[in-house]
Amino acid sequence: MLLKFCSTAPLRQLKRAHFDVKSIVKNLPQHLASIKARQLATEDELVAQLHNLPAQQEDLRQLSTEKVEIQTLRKATERKIKQDASRDHELRDQLKSLKTEFQSTSEKHRQLQEVVYETCLSLPNLVEDSVPAEEPELVQWVNPLSMYRAEPARDHVQILVRKGLVDFKAGADITGSSWYYLLGDAALLEQALIAYATARARKQGFSMCIPPSIARCEIIDACGFRPRDMNNEQQIYHIADSQLGLTATAEIPLAGLAANRVLDLSSGPRKVCGVSRSYRAEAGARGKDTRGLYRVHEFTKVELFCWCTPEESTRILEELREFQTTIVSELGLPAKVLNMPANDLGAPAYKKYDVEAWMPGRGSFGEITSTSNCLDFQSRRMHTKFKTSPQEKPRYAHTLNGTAMAIPRVILAIVENFYNPGTDKIAIPLVLHPYMDNKTEI
């Protein structure tokens, strides 16, 4: 089903985000707890700003009252000028003084509003009560093994290079480190994974979308992707002399699809599946994780994105997790599902699940999917609202995102789990056979 809109005005430059400052002040302890639990590098600064917010909100209220009172006096003085010509000079001096006072008060109000806005803009989302503090919580095993043992002979880099299925050297020569060429059946495997994931998504009611891989910086920012992460590593490739950046995930342009819109959710949540190339600038900054296909600068990703009512987002998150678990299970990959701790949540996430697959060549588990509930964090910045009936007042939608398929890491997991050293062949998961020209191995 195509995305339906109640309002179809063309996408314009985003307005300033709208924050419910009263709600933030009312829930100050929860916001403070979120900042501390996330262990942010800017924790001290954010905590100080947040502690000032109640007083600043009261000051704004008083300044607004003063502005109204001054305007009332100005109008009264203007009436007196018309009624009493003998006091014209005196009253006009008063009017001039009131105008100056109003301008001064208005400027104080504007400056304080800006301080409050910047504080709200810098706040991360709240954290759901079930989110663990510092360590991931195991939710379930998928295709569990009796033993998880490192097997260097299953290293995907050695296998793929030896079989002529990937060329890291050419990628480095043409572009730089952490770029690569997928060749032959490895390229076909990528296409098979895309076809399988999108077919699965369509069966679950997701409509298909091929989004742009470049977005305006304000859209990237509104999604919660900052130029640098907690380790001060660059995340986003910005295009020089423009206000554009390469998207790190289809989540960004998919969220932008409903920017400045009022969605019609009368038929239920809106669910979109996007296929795009994704670009990550930080790929070369994490030691052993940079080897091979695990952390690269450019890759194909199948992304799921949902808009729903606030009452539905908890259920939708669990549905996304189940969808991801089913895909991993059908691929036959040994994996575990984790409820991720607060110190691993990005700023927009209220709660997040990761699925980590066992990668014997690397000798460790590695993340292959993630899904998050962002509540109204993104919709307030994107100005995405919804109605479920024509009479209903528009409210901010909740947004959720999830990975259906991060192609390079899934290829890595397939190679390292299904490679047979005796035959030098890689078994292809059964569900992919129809998309691999019915090949059973590579």
TrEMBL record:
From the record, what ranges are coiled-coil?
A: 60-115
Q: Which residues bind ATP?
A: R280, A281, E282, V296, H297, E298, F299, E367, I368, T369, S370
Ranges for domain Aminoacyl-transfer RNA synthetases class-II family profile = 155-429
Source domain of life: Eukaryota
Q: What class of enzyme is it?
A: ligase
Q: What is its EC number?
A: 6.1.1.11
Q: Where is this site: Important for serine binding?
A: T403
Keywords from UniProt, A to Z, are: Aminoacyl-tRNA synthetase, ATP-binding, Coiled coil, Ligase, Nucleotide-binding
Please name the PROSITE patterns in this protein's record.
Answer: AA_TRNA_LIGASE_II
Q: Which residues bind L-serine?
A: T249, R280, E303, N401
Q: Which Gene3D superfamilies match?
A: Bira Bifunctional Protein, Domain 2 (3.30.930.10)
Q: One MF term in GO for this entry?
A: serine-tRNA ligase activity
What GO biological process terms does the UniProt entry carry, in alphabetical order? seryl-tRNA aminoacylation
InterPro entries membership: aa-tRNA-synt_IIb, aa-tRNA-synth_II, aa-tRNA-synth_II/BPL/LPL, Ser-tRNA-ligase_type_1, tRNA-bd_arm
PANTHER family reported in the protein's UniProt record: SERYL-TRNA SYNTHETASE
- Cross-referenced NCBIfam families, in alphabetical order? serS
Full protein name: serine--tRNA ligase
Which organism is the protein's source? Lachancea mirantina
